[in-house]
Amino acid sequence: MTLRRKIPVLQIGAMPPAAEALLADQFELASFAGEILALADAGRLSGVRGIATTGKAPIGAELIRALPGLRVISCLGAGFDGIDVSAARARDVEIATTSRVLAADVADVAMGLVIATARDFVGADRFARDGTWSSGRYPLGRSLGGAKLGIVGLGNIGKAVARRASAFDMQVAYTARRPVEGVSWSYFAELAKLARWSRFLVLCCPGGPETYRLVDQNVLSALGTDGVLINVARGSVVDEAALAQAIETGMIASAGLDVFEGEPNPHPALAASPRVTMLPHIGSATVETRERMAQAMVDALVGPLEAE
Asked: For a Cys staple, 145 with which of 124, 168, 169, 221, CB 3.0–4.6 Å?
């Protein structure tokens, strides 16, 4: 989509060069490293109609109030943790994400972590490389076929994970704010009950205050000694200290994590554990998807602004 005229748009936070080039080509762009710097220059931003951001960069009520012409906030990513959603809704400001175009790649990583933890690929790799193989066979892993996989959050990513897990002949269930229409997977109203049912508990829910440390000691205890936690959502969804203790004590079997609360510095006890498979937040990190995400972010701005 292309606008007939260049409309003022505010960029908050750094983005990949290709995404910034698309924004500059489409809009009259004002860029700031953060919300505070934008507020300091709010006087010349009164004509801004849209905000482009990563979703993690703070965009609070004060900045939203300072932009009387604001109509849409478009996030390069699946989440909008940093945005004051209540303030945006009060002004009828639309919030858009690129979750639909990145869902497949994030779901692939989630299933990769399921397989890696079930069969301990990381440990087996070390075993094959360091000469230990000559001393005997590697310990047995666990099968995926027939195993129970619970999903927390059945949005675009959660549904993509469910489809992939079903193709592995796994039993699939989910929890969400309410049952999702048009799906055949079993629904649990309570997270702890889903955790108790699951061998693999996959987190696909949004971050933010509503899900902050949603997975705590009680949920991990319900997951149990054979249970595996997979997180491709946000690090803030998990009480990482409780997770580290659960793994150390054997409360759960293992974890596969692509996201961390203190990125890029994971919890040291998790980093030190051989029963944790860790990735550096690469869920959507493919060439093809990053290109689609940048275009989707721009299109989400163009649509509402062109309609004015």
From this structure: 169
Report the CATH superfamily, name and number, of domain 8-77+288-306: NAD(P)-binding Rossmann-like Domain (3.40.50.720)
**Spatial separation of the C-alpha atoms in residues 116 and 134, rounded to whole Å:** 23
Give the domain ranges of the chain. Answer: 8-77+288-306, 102-278
Give the tens place of pLDDT for each residue, 196-231: 999 999 999 999 889 999 999 999 999 999 999 999
Nearest Cα neighbor of 301 from 129, 79, 51, 20 is 51
> Quick check: 302 and 3 in contact, CB under 8 A?
yes
Per-residue model confidence (pLDDT) at position 80: 87
User: Same CATH fold, 102-278 and 8-77+288-306?
Assistant: yes
Which residues are annotated as catalytic?
A: 234, 263, 281
The structure tokens listed for 258 are 């692509």
**At which residue do the structure tokens 């690929």 appear?**
121
Q: Please, what sign has the CA dihedral across residues 298, 300, 305, 307?
A: positive
Low-confidence ranges of the chain (pLDDT < 50): 3
* pLDDT at 22 (0 to 100): 94
Q: Is the dihedral of CA 164, 168, 169, 172 positive or negative?
A: negative
Domain 102-278 CATH assignment equals 3.40.50.720: yes
Q: Is 215 helix (H, G, I), strand (E, B) or coil?
A: strand
CA–CA distance from 230 to each of 18, 119, 224, 225, 266 (Å)? Answer: 31, 14, 14, 15, 15
pLDDT of 52 reads: 97
* CB atoms closer than 10 angstroms to residue 20: 16
Give the number of other Cβ atoms within 10 Å of residue 102's Cβ.
25
**Counting every residue, how long is the chain?**
308
